[in-house]
Amino acid sequence: AKDAGRSCHRFFEARMAEKIQLRRALEQDLRRAISRDELEVHYQPKVDARSGAFTGAEALVRWNHPERGQLSPAVFVPLAEELGLINAIGAWVLARACADAATWPPHMCVAVNLSPVQIMDRRLVRSIRKILKETGYPAERLELEITETALLGNDVQALATLKEIRALGMKISLDDFGTGYSSLSYLHRFPIDRIKIDRSFVARSPNDAGSASIIQAIARLGASLGIKVTAEGIETESQRRFSSDEGCSELQGYLISRPVPHAQLAALFAKARTE
Ligand code: C2E
Ligand code: CA
Ligand code: CA
Ligand code: CA
């Protein structure tokens, strides 16, 4: 039994060492990912809930690791935040997204995710302005998605940054709404143009009564505050119908399309134009 305990202990130590090693390997690799051209931006289209017409797309970063294949941002974005690499990666994504979106039909918007770490960076606004200038992309067609976490804590700085972004003509979306630290006061303290209902609620709708009521409540809240509401993670026809009937103005999810490489998105937009 003593031996078993010891070998069990050694097993966990080995697992732990393996994990630390993987992190270290990824850390080295992530530092070089931009210069080695391993990052890529995929786009998930969004549609108008009433007409079904495309309104634009959300930019979602991917890492094509030379040995490990395509890695999810859920894995490497938190690592990039810890390593102080998220500002550089975020700026790279923004520049790529604006350059790509500059080729879209003129009414389409691109939405780009911003890490809370980026919101805290005093150079953020300058960096965005530089990218808009270099790509010639209009600020009015750029939407920045932030999470409630970004508004916690140092909210004086966050508020100043968001006001500056707004003054330049960009739109601000509150992502993953309803999870984490949702506070209704954010909606009127911060300049928010859009709420994105978290997909965990959408996934359980319309059958789960609790989730359905939350979607209803958020949609009404948005309507009464003059804030647009997007339902994300729409996978089924009944979810689409429910969110649309409850007053969400925009929809996003696998039912419409998975995130796709830019060439594929451009083809979708072109096809819609001729239909
Ligand atoms: P998010 O911003 O909430 O993005 C939506 C995620 O849900 C995406 O995962 C998307 O592929 C997935 N999704 C969309 N529709 C459906 C659906 O119908 N069903 C299901 N099951 N999933 C759906 P992805 O691309 O893996 O991104 C994960 C998260 O990583 C994002 O969540 C966002 O928080 C973060 N992220 C992605 N790109 C960036 C980026 O450029 N910068 C930052 N800071 N974070 C990013
Ligand atoms: Ca390696
Ligand atoms: Ca998002
Ligand atoms: Ca989300």
From TrEMBL:
Signal peptide: none annotated. Residues 23-273 form the EAL domain. Coiled coil: none annotated. It comes from the Bacteria. This is EAL domain-containing protein. The chain holds residues 401 to 675 of 677 of the full protein.
